[in-house]
Write a structure and sequence with these properties.
The structure is a single chain. The chain is of the alpha/beta class and about 300 residues long. The protein is globular and about 60 Å long. Helix 2 (about 120-130) links the parallel strand 7 and strand 8. It has a 6-stranded antiparallel sheet, with helices on one face. A 5-stranded parallel sheet has the order 9-8-7-10-11, sandwiched between helices. Helices cover about 20% and strands about 35% of the residues. It has 3 domains: about 5-100, Beta Barrel (Elongation Factor Tu (Ef-tu), domain 3), CATH 2.40.30.10; about 110-215, Nucleotide-binding domain of ferredoxin-NADP reductase (FNR) module (Rossmann fold, 3-Layer(aba) Sandwich), CATH 3.40.50.80; about 225-310, Roll (Ubiquitin-like (UB roll)), CATH 3.10.20.30. It binds FE2/S2 (inorganic) cluster (FES). FE2/S2 (inorganic) cluster binds near residues 282 and 299.
């Protein structure tokens, strides 16, 4: 599968809230950009060892511009600081994608829950739900009202469907109000910090929830063991020792594979499993997808047993 990759230009740069910078990107020659659907993200290449994923939060119908929003994280690993400090209007930035592991499935009703910068993938979902004539509500939390991006854009939705709940005014999000009595046919979409996602996961009826995480889920991983991986397309077999990832072992064998976050959150390295049982350690696949064992994120996931056959 060929993935779109291009150097785009920062056409607009504006603050969407305290510490949240929204960038509008265009092709330098005015070329049309690939189509995308709500929930999609871009890989943004900020330097040789600095690559980050940001959700597209503009209008999917606008094929000339992509909008992302970046929260400055003072204790982050440098990606958001780079965007805030180094990317000015007119600067070029390399992007790859879009990719979507958080697609909006058709449903008559949705409950959207966003925490902080987690509003970004939800924003285009609201427009899509609205256009489809679905019933929906949004519960949107953040530290303070000033830190919450796009509240003005959200104010165009009437009918009391949007609840903006800054923590310093109303405390923690009232998840019971949206999750305790979910009508049949409802899907729940949630994006935000780990503790919010964990709380929603614990409360939401099984099978309804779709989440996107910006940071790896905290989970108990088993001990790393050694196993073999047969690469069906390239006809190679590699040994994955306990201290390396499948991704590293595959790359060391000279097999090209796409990857980005290397922490199991972006979905770029998703690989088809032809035989063997993966031990999933990612934060992308749903429980059902993990159970099926059809694909795995080779940057973090390993093998239950001694051998995997991958479609590489
Ligand atoms: S590289 Fe992001 S999930 Fe593997």
């Amino acid at each position: 599968m060929t993935v779109y990759e291009a150097e785009l230009v920062v056409d607009r740069r504006e603050f969407a809230a305290d510490g949240v910078l929204a960038l509008t990107l265009r092709h330098p020659l005015g070329d049309e950009l690939p189509a995308w659907e709500p929930g999609a993200h871009l890989d943004v290449v900020l330097g040789p060892e600095l690559e980050r994923q940001y959700s597209l939060c503009g209008d999917p119908a606008d094929r000339n511009a992509w909008r992302i929003a970046v929260l400055r994280e003072p204790d982050g690993r440098g990606g958001s600081a780079h965007v805030h400090e180094q990317l000015g209007q007119g600067d070029k930035v390399r992007v790859r994608g879009p990719r979507n592991h958080f697609a909006l499935r058709p449903a008559p009703r949705y409950r959207f829950i966003a925490g902080g910068i987690g509003i970004t993938p939800i924003l285009p979902m609201l427009a899509a739900a609205e256009a489809a004539g679905a019933e929906w509500t949004l519960l949107y939390g953040g530290r303070t009202r000033r830190s919450m991006a796009f509240t003005e854009e959200l104010s165009r939705y009437g009918g009391g469907r949007v609840t903006v709940a800054p923590q310093d005014e109303t405390g923690l999000l009232d998840l019971a109000s949206v999750l305790d009595d979910v009508p049949e046919g409802t899907l729940v979409y949630c994006c935000g910090p780990g503790p919010l996602l964990d709380a929603v996961e614990a409360r939401c009826p099984a099978g309804l929830l779709h989440t996107e995480r910006f940071a790896p889920k905290e989970q108990e991983d088993g001990e790393n063991t050694e196993f073999e991986v047969e690469l069906a397309q390239s006809g190679k077999t590699v040994t994955v020792s306990p201290d390396v990832s499948v991704l590293d072992a595959v790359r060391a064998a000279g097999v090209e594979v796409l990857f980005s976050c290397t922490e199991g959150t972006c979905g770029t390295c998703e690989t088809d499993v032809l035989d063997g049982t993966p031990e999933h350690r990612d934060s992308v696949l749903t429980a059902e997808e993990q159970e099926s064992g059809e694909t795995m994120m080779i940057c973090v996931s390993r093998c239950r047993g001694k051998r995997l056959v991958l479609d590489l």
